[in-house]
Fold:
Amino acid sequence: MDKEELQKIIEDVDIENNQDPRKVTDDGLEVGYELFYAKLMTKWINILSANPSDNLLISGRGIHLKRWMHPRDSYPKGLPGYFQWKKALQKFHCSEMLSLLEKYSLEKVATEKISSLILKTNLGNCSETQVIEDAVSLIFIEHQLLPLLEKSGEEKVINAIQKTWAKMSENGQKNALELDLPKESNEIIQKALKS
Structure:
């Protein structure tokens, strides 16, 4: 695909994600939370991958496409409900992305790769899937760790950090340790890594 087509796809994803009713301020503008998240994914993909493929950039931008339409509280509480929600979300995001891409003339191999990256089907065997996982993990550490700590307490956060860390590459972990985080975040990360 050419750069113009890539840019149009990114713009289409951004239009959809900006419809998120949860608003945040990004560079002085009020935007949908999932648009903010998608931009963070692109930022991290460009940091983690020297020359990211178009498929990787599209997948990262749309990994949470229309996530607000499937809120966590629409599934049972507890770990089984959480995993049920996450699995359903991946399928939903993939389906929404494939629908969005229908108007473009992408080859089947490209749409299959985008699906695979969104579903993270090859984690552990595909460097691009690892970049997606690292980007998601870095966003969690940088932006979602403290709110989770305030909501759920130290034990749950330590567990989440340990599970996140185990899925990250050495490069992802290195980038995480270099983040300029609040003191509370650094302390809980160090506690989790020593446990």
